[in-house]
Design a protein that fits this description.
The protein is mostly helical. The chain is 68% helix and 0% strand. The protein has helices at residues 3-36, 52-66, 71-97, 103-125.
Amino acid sequence: MSFVKKIGRAALGIIAGLLLGVAASVGVIVANARLRGRYLSSFDEVVGWSLVPAVLGPAVGVWLALRESPAGRRVLSRVLRGLTAGVALGVGLGAAIDGHASSAWAGGVIGGAAGIFAGFAAGFLGPRRAAPEPPGAADPSPSNGD
């Protein structure tokens, strides 16, 4: 891979990782506010475990973008599917559970963050597709000379 292509991939990894990491961090903060009643009153309260996804996201994004394997695409694909499904389910559940005007929005943010985490885990820990057989590959079954 050429140097220019590596720089481009690294930049995309940083951007994607930062966006997804910040979205996950915001989801954690909103979940703490809505589910535990722990609202933020100063920036000092943001610093902590809730920022781990935003800090690690760009590094993981670069690492996945520079790998010469389908793992990066698999993880990103599953994260984006998880994000999409999480937002859709969160909006629906948030609006159905609580009639407050912000419930659908908060549910979407929380669901999106949960979908990011689930997609990330599924991308790393989930099943992988077997590599396709190259054309003309020999049959691995034993031959009895017939």
